[in-house]
Amino acid sequence: VASAGDWMQGVFDPGNWGYWAFLFVTVVVFTFFYTLVVFQQQNLAENLQRQGGFVPGIRPGRPTGEYINRVLMRITWGGAFFLGFVAVAPFIFSAIIGGGFSLGGRSAAFGITSSGLIIVVGVVLDTLRQIEAQLLMRQYEGFIR
For residue 2, which of 33, 71, 67, 10 has the smallest C-alpha distance? Predict the structure, then answer.
């Protein structure tokens, strides 16, 4: 049991390349899966046809649905790989700089992690949306823009 624990500790050590590869693959797979599940529930082609919209050059109905799914797959893979890159960016940058990324020894080259970066960007965007909603509610259009 102790050897299995030592192995797990070695594999999931942030100073190990395997940890970052596992993190990248996990982020890409879960991002892709989550986005696919969310957008498959919306049935975009049917809603588009019901509202009188269409995609130029694509026949309404099933061909439109296939086209939207194909485009959605491409966009989702691109976004998933980008988010995976953001997740491992601190490790890549610290490896390039040469400062190392040994959290076990409590010396990290980067002060902000990828999750911290995502949280900061999300909070800033949400704050801007709330401010804009408040201003629109009070008829102060164009204040932020």
Answer: 10
- Is residue 101 within 8 A of residue 13, CB to CB? The reply is no
d(CA 115, CA 88): 10
Q: How far apart are CA 117 and CA 119, in angstroms?
A: 5
Please give the C-alpha separations between residue 43 and each of 37, 60, 113, 124, 142, in angstroms, as whole numbers.
11, 13, 36, 31, 34
Euclidean distance between CA atoms 22 and 16, whole angstroms: 10
User: What's the pLDDT tens digit per position in 46-94?
Assistant: 888 888 888 899 888 888 888 888 898 899 999 999 989 988 887 887 7
Task: Give the whole-angstrom CA distance, residue 20 versus residue 18.
Answer: 5
Burial class (CB in 10 A: 0-12, 13-18, 19+), 135: middle
